[in-house]
């Protein structure tokens, strides 16, 4: 059940459907799939769900939005395993499970990761935007619960001079609650040896190496699907290629299919090493642990991957130069890239 005909969510729903069907195509014993794409996630979810069950569904996947999942809970009777693609704050219901990409869980994972790496104090950089606030609050909640201290909160308003008095200390890190555009404006104005962390919101793909150079050394978490890890190649890529945000939804579709197999008892291995991350079941919620990653020489890669010699990361015109010459040339090019 996906809002494929929605003006607001149609593109996202289509990416999920593509990923789901890609996984179906690799399963020689796959059950037939019937798609219900004409639904209003605020009003018709319950009726469409009942129709799917009446049509003989062995399992149901969807809806996609928080409002849709909230409407689904009103059914209050789930005769078949049902996997919603978002989460809601409500009591678990028999046969209803949740799986989604809640960005707050990434912020909490980053807080745990930075704490394990020895940092005790955090400077949190946010902005007056709903998503940035959600990330800020989720990070700070987990950070303080784990014994960390929030040293300073900074609301970025476009003035980079507000970072002039920040000094790097061994036990202090910076958390970016901001997205890619603001974070790459801010990062060059922080001390070069300042540890910095962020969620997947900071990563918009590896296509633009020079843009990513502004985020050199920043740690973040994201899907294995975008990092090309060994778990990924078995599944076909979308064709034509999708924007990064829709690639994440495509990956969500792949893992949604695999989790349905768990609910149907056709696959029992949990945690699941999924293309969205390592997925485990807590109560009625499938929780996703994203992959720790790092920006290195303008390229995002798994944090534990070996770092290639600098010259290998550069365009062809630099491949015959020394590493120092290549780094100098790209650094000069990066300096003149206009900021968006």
Brief account:
Helix content is 33%, strand content 17%.
Describe the model.
The protein has helices at residues 10-25, 45-54, 66-73, 103-116, 130-145, 180-186, 209-212, 224-227, 244-263, 323-335; strands at residues 60-61, 82-84, 96-99, 121-126, 149-155, 172-176, 195-198, 219-222, 272-273, 278-282, 285-289, 291-296, 299-302. The protein has two domains: 10-99 and 230-289, Response regulator (Rossmann fold, 3-Layer(aba) Sandwich), CATH 3.40.50; 104-223 and 292-307, Response regulator (Rossmann fold, 3-Layer(aba) Sandwich). Mean pLDDT is 88; it is low at 310-340. The strands form two sheets. A seven-stranded mixed sheet has the order 5-4-6-7-8-12-13. Strands 1-2-3-11-10-9 form a six-stranded mixed sheet, with helices on both faces. The protein has 340 residues and is an alpha/beta fold.
Count of spatially separate domains: 2
Q: CATH topology of the largest domain, anyone?
A: Rossmann fold
Please name the fourth-level CATH homologous superfamily of the largest domain: Response regulator
Shape: elongated
Q: What is the typical, i.e. mean, pLDDT?
A: 88
Total strand segments: 13
- How far from one another are the termini? 37 Å
Indicate the CATH class of the largest domain.
Alpha Beta
Please tally the helical runs, counting DSSP H or I stretches of 4 or more residues. 10
Radius of gyration: 22 Å
Architecture (CATH level 2) name of the largest domain: 3-Layer(aba) Sandwich
Show unreliable segments. 310-340
SSE order, as H and E? HHEHEEHEHEEHEHEHHEEEEEH
Strand order in the sheet with the most strands: 5-4-6-7-8-12-13
Helix share, percent:
25-40%
SS class:
alpha/beta
Q: Which percent range describes the beta-strand content?
A: 15-25%
